[in-house]
Design a protein that fits this description.
It is built from 4 helices and no strands. By secondary structure, the chain is an all-alpha fold. The protein has one domain. Helix 1 packs antiparallel against helix 2 and helix 1 crosses helix 3. The protein is globular.
């Protein structure tokens, strides 16, 4: 599992948002597969569009690394990562 003390890699512009987004998409895909959950077509399409946009911000190695990290996130870690990426608290109140 990813430690929140090791943040996602920065993109070429120095922000973490694209890597965090890639991790969250991959986490969603992994958790959906684990529970054998049906993914609506529009969600799958939205995730593909998101990953396509991310690929313009991160190089291939950074994208692969972020996606791999995302597949290992627990749900609470994914929530904390999302909050951190949005500039919110990393711990629930």
């Amino acid at each position: 599992m990813m430690s929140l003390s090791s943040p996602p890699p920065r993109n070429k512009q120095g922000t973490r948002a694209p890597a965090a987004a890639a991790q969250l998409v991959s986490c969603f895909e992994q958790l959906s597969a684990e529970i054998e959950g049906a993914v609506e077509d529009w969600v799958a399409e939205m995730n593909q569009v998101t990953l396509s946009r991310i690929s313009t911000k991160l190089d291939g190695a950074a994208l692969d690394q972020a996606r791999q990290r995302g597949r290992t996130l627990a749900l609470d870690e994914a929530v904390a990562l999302a909050l951190e990426a949005l500039g919110g608290a990393s711990e629930p109140a």
